[in-house]
Fold:
Amino acid sequence: MAAETGEPGIDFVRRLNEYSGIGNEWIILRDAETDWSYGVHPCRRSIEEHIRNGVINLDKPPGPTSHEVVAWIKKMLGLGRAGHGGTLEP
Amino acid sequence: MVIQFHREVSESDVREALKEFIGEIYQRPPLRSSVKRTLRTRRIYYIELIEHTGKYSVVRVGCQAGTYMRKLAHDLGLVLGVGAHMRELRRTRTGPFKEDETLVRLQELSEALYLWRTENDERMLRRIIMPVEVAVSHIPKILILDSAVDAIAHGASLAVPGISMLMKNIRKNTMVAIMSLKGELVALGTALYDAEEIADMSRGIVVKTKRVYMKPGIYPRAWRKKK
Structure:
């Protein structure tokens, strides 16, 4: 999901849908513009913001638990909050 | 998953037995588990036998969250009458995350961090860490007006006038991602109607906000406080 300069938000959302393959059929209720003086395109966050609002598809080795790996990553990146998407055998 | 059978079985027998496990199955969580041990049903979408030799099978299982693979291996052994247990397990897919070019190891993350901190080069880190929006890429979405963003960020539910566009696959009582027109994740919620029904409405709450992601105060506040 690399940044594409000047990409409208809807095109980014369309790319997300293509990535996960859930289709791209929309109903438009109101044509609207967005004001770029606040908020930010998800690919153009500052690196610090990007890290805080990010996800990693991590290849966890067997051994350490998901919980432990999250704790390491939290420390590595100096994060206040971090979590994981679920354990394999709860 | 790698299954070890306790006696040799033929590939065709394994193939036949696996068919029994497709669809709705009953499972009682194993002794060593952290959920309540009551009988529950789980759906198995597919089981692909990747390889079989003598006492070992490698299978890829597509299943509902909360299905115990260890139990499936054990039960397969019972069906075949030879006994079996799970030897190895690997998650190959969950939600939008799969074993594709986005999958990284801890080592790569550590290298990327090093490059950023010492060389001031953030490119690798930006490739490894994906925007949070990727995590909801498989969920039907609603894009909302700038004027509705801050109310949602404060936890309000979404009403029809705040919507710009919505995906046709939104179904009643399922999860939707509420996003800004810039593509930012604002919140996750439960749809109260199907997409077509929402399109025919002119007012009223249509998504109950469940989990707010965006911090309040980023978008201007366009709503009034109740007096």
Observations:
- Chain B touches chain A through 69 residues (CB under 8 Å).
- The mean pLDDT of chain B is 96.
- The CA atoms of residues 144 and 163 of chain B lie 4 Å apart.
